[in-house]
Design goal:
Elements: H1 3-18, H2 24-31, H3 35-44, E1 49-52, E2 64-69, E3 75-79, H4 92-102, E4 108-110, E5 133-135, H5 136-144, H6 149-159, H7 161-174, H8 197-208, H9 211-217, E6 221-225, E7 232-236, E8 248-256, E9 260-269, E10 272-281, H10 284-298, E11 299-302
Antiparallel strand pairs: 1-11, 2-3, 2-10, 4-5, 6-7, 8-9, 9-10
Helix pairs in contact: 4-5, 4-6, 4-7, 4-8, 5-6, 6-7
């Protein structure tokens, strides 16, 4: 018999001998004979904690990096993690969270005025058409798979553009994204619209906690339509690593001239989950590949001390 079980036996025996009758302790253990074993099992089944080996991290071109274990949110690698950068389309993580708060997936949005390539030649568009009636769910596919600026703008305008931006900043504050401010829903560079690698990891964690939104970011390609099946939109994920690097479950890309190449990734390996953020990179996909290899080699898990 283990030491713990001997002590447990003696304590219960003492209570039975000296406190008969209506003792709540007697009733608890007599009616729940597995209680002691259950408490012990819970103590022994605590989540393990990540440990980083002294292995040097790889060179990456990104000026901002933050890697964290998703379960414990333990930082594993940081480079200018609290510095402020232009978010580019990684801002759409918050756009999607706000959309999920203020709309229902089956709500139908009418496109009052489509945005065209002639008007916005540098924008990523899903090709919405004036007069098109399309569900919020399909517009979310546009935002999170194709990084479509027209989808983000039309949803914000439908809700009330200024109020939507307020909601975005309220959501950032709720998530304690203290280095973040948003000025638009699509991530196009604007004065004062800034975020940090750490803050984007907080946003990514919030999105991954929402099973409905998490399904969008792991979609490599999909064709969606309006409610009348008149207009069809083939959407391809901008993330080149999705389906190419084992364990990458997508999340959100971003690029503008001022922001450089940004990428927030969800990575799974050996039953563990990570968020990888790279900002202002010269090659976001190669940087992220190197960082996943570093995770594989440098990060291990040990049982939580009791």
């Amino acid at each position: 018999m283990s030491g713990f079980r001997i002590v447990q036996f003696l304590v219960i025996t003492f209570v039975l001998l000296f406190y008969p009758g209506n003792s709540w302790i007697i009733h608890t253990f007599s009616q729940n004979p597995q209680l002691g074993r259950t408490v012990q099992a819970k103590k022994l089944s605590a989540d393990p904690i990540p440990v980083v080996s002294p292995l040097s991290p790889p060179y990456v071109s990104a000026e901002g990096v933050f890697i964290t274990d998703l379960t414990s949110f333990t930082p594993l690698l940081e480079k200018n993690s609290r510095a402020k950068f232009f978010p580019a389309s990684t801002a759409k993580i918050i756009t999607a969270l706000v959309v999920a708060d203020v709309f229902q997936p089956t709500d139908i949005i009418t496109v009052k005025k489509a945005i065209t390539k002639e008007e916005k030649p540098d924008w990523q568009l899903m090709g919405l058409v004036t007069g098109e009636r399309i569900t919020v769910e399909n517009l979310l596919y546009g935002i999170l798979v194709h990084s479509a600026n027209d989808a983000a703008m039309i949803l914000a305008q439908n809700y009330g553009y200024d109020n939507f931006i307020v909601k975005m900043n309220d959501k950032a504050a709720e998530l304690h994204m203290n280095s973040t401010h948003f000025s638009n829903p699509d991530g196009i560079d604007e004065q004062g619209q800034l975020t940090s690698p750490y803050d984007l990891a907080l946003a990514a964690r919030a999105l991954l906690k929402n099973p409905y939104l998490a399904k969008f970011v792991s979609t490599k390609e999909i064709t969606i339509s309006d409610v009348d099946y008149t207009h069809f939109h083939k959407l391809s994920n901008v993330n080149e690593l999705l389906g190419e690097v084992s364990g990458i479950g997508g999340l959100k890309t971003g690029y503008t001239e001022l922001a450089g190449e940004n990428l927030v990734s969800f990575y799974k390996k050996n039953g563990h989950q990570y968020i990888i953020v790279v900002l202002k990179s010269l090659d976001r996909f190669e940087d992220t590949k190197q960082l996943t290899k570093w995770i594989d080699d440098a990060v291990s898990f040990v049982p939580m001390p009791l």
